């Protein structure tokens, strides 16, 4: 390893191993390596199974950036092979395999959005089809010999699917082997990823030991709740996307529960944690407005963040309508629920009915609808 990283201070180590972090395994190894002054090889792997990134995805990307800023050798691994198989982590049902063309299409937009956080020119970008495409059956058997069926079946999602009689395909057992083999090929000191990836990352640690590679520690980042208190996900229609317009981003952040303000400040902003503690002493609304401003500024710049904040204050302090309200045209016979579904204001007809029953959907003036406190839509009805 190269010795061109200054010996990391205790405070820097603590920041790398704590901010936005769920677990470090084994912690003693991580602290030893980080304090050694060696340039560590660190990687984060992602399967581009979708085209849109939300703030939840930004947590491991921001941690990767922290390692770049600390002077370490960082690898951004694209699961160009594994994305076609599909990660079973956290899944109640089997994933539908993707084609290479679908993966490549998703990857293009993924890299554009990841570039909002990472300077991709400063890191090494690799693709795991480079080595997984070439594995023979004997290689796969050798990989599989390092694990037992019991280990695989102990995974939460597999145990649940067995109890519920939901099929588990054999290739799903191979997924941890494939991503584990990524660690062997890359020969890394650290792998980071979301906490739902712990099993897969530990599989890589096992394989690095079996193949006599470096001793790797893993760092899992936190999974963050979205605007409705559930894990941020496109499925739940509760995500704040990196490509959201400034006004939408600001408004969505303001709509999250006050209890999440500290979590969002820690995980989604560049503010020093001492400053975070000062912000949290403010009135909850003021603290959240600062949070929304900081997040919007990161992705849209200070000027647009100020505009979003002013527009929010004008709209919600005085009961007005956002200046940048989205306008759609629709046939007068189109059911309102269908328009809301198409525009992403609700995730399902069930959610529409629930919000309507709660009085959370209101027509505040002709053709202008408010959903909850912060989502607006103007519909120009056509004959």
Q: In words, what does this structure look like?
A:
The chain is of the alpha/beta class and 383 residues long. It has three domains: 10-221, HUPs (Rossmann fold, 3-Layer(aba) Sandwich); 246-317, Tyrosyl-Transfer RNA Synthetase; 327-382, Roll (Structural Genomics Hypothetical 15.5 Kd Protein In mrcA-pckA Intergenic Region, Chain A). It is 47% helix and 14% strand. The protein contains 18 helices and ten strands. Strands 1-6-5-2-3-4 form a six-stranded mixed β-sheet, with helices on both faces. Strands 7-10-9-8 form a four-stranded mixed β-sheet. Helix 11 links the parallel strand 5 (190-194) and strand 6. Helix 10 (170-186) packs across helix 11 (198-210) and helix 12 runs antiparallel to helix 15. The chain is globular and about 70 Å long. The model has no long low-confidence stretch (mean pLDDT 88).
Instruction: Please identify, by name, the CATH architecture of the largest domain.
Output: 3-Layer(aba) Sandwich
Instruction: State the low-pLDDT regions, or none.
Output: none
State mean pLDDT (0 to 100 scale). 88
Q: Provide the number of structural domains.
A: 3
Principal-axis shape? globular
Strand order of the largest sheet: 1-6-5-2-3-4
Structural class: alpha/beta
CATH-defined fold name of the largest domain? Rossmann fold
Q: Helix coverage percent of residues?
A: 40-55%
Number of strands: 10
Structural Rg: 23 Å
Query: According to CATH, what is the class of the largest domain?
Result: Alpha Beta
SSE series: HEHEHEHHEHHHHHEHEHHHHHEHHEEE
> Considering the protein shown, what is the CATH homologous superfamily of the largest domain?
HUPs
State the end-to-end distance: 70 Å
Strand content: 5-15%
Specify the number of helices: 18
What composes the largest sheet? 6 strands, mixed
């Amino acid at each position: 390893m190269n010795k061109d990283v200054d010996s990391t201070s205790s405070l820097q180590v603590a920041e790398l191993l704590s901010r936005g972090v769920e677990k470090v395994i084994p912690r003693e190894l991580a602290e030893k390596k980080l304090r050694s002054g060696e340039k560590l090889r660190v990687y984060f792997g992602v399967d581009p199974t979708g085209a849109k990134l939300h703030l939840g995805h930004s947590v491991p990307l921001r941690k990767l950036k922290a390692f770049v800023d600390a002077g370490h050798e960082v690898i951004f691994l694209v699961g160009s092979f594994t994305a076609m198989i599909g990660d079973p982590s956290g899944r109640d049902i089997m994933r539908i395999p993707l084609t290479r063309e679908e993966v490549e299409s998703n990857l293009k937009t993924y890299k554009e959005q990841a570039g909002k956080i990472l300077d991709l020119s400063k890191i090494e970008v690799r693709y795991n089809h480079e080595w997984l495409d070439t594995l023979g059956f004997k290689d796969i058997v050798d990989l599989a010999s390092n694990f037992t069926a019991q280990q695989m079946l102990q995974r939460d999602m597999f145990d649940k699917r067995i109890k519920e009689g939901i099929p588990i395909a054999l290739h799903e057992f191979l997924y941890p082997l494939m991503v584990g083999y990524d660690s062997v090929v890359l020969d890394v000191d650290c792998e980071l990823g979301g906490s739902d990836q712990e099993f897969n990352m530990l599989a890589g640690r096992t394989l690095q030991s079996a193949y006599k590679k470096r001793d790797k520690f893993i760092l899992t980042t936190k999974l963050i709740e979205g605007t409705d208190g559930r894990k941020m996900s496109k499925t739940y229609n509760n995500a704040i996307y990196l490509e959201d317009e400034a006004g939408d981003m600001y408004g969505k952040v303001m709509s999250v529960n006050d209890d999440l303000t500290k979590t969002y400040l820690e995980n989604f902003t560049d503010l020093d944690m001492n400053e975070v503690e000062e912000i949290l002493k403010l009135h909850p609304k003021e603290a959240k407005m600062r949070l929304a401003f900081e997040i919007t500024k990161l992705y849209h710049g200070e000027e647009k963040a100020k505009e979003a904040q002013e527009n929010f204050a004008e709209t919600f302090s005085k009961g007005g309508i956002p200046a940048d309200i989205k306008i759609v045209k629709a046939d007068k016979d189109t059911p309102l629920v269908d328009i809301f579904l198409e525009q992403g204001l609700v995730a399902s007809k069930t959610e529409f009915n629930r919000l309507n029953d709660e009085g959370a959907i209101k027509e505040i003036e002709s053709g202008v609808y408010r959903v909850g406190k912060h989502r607006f839509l103007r519909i120009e009805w056509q004959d």
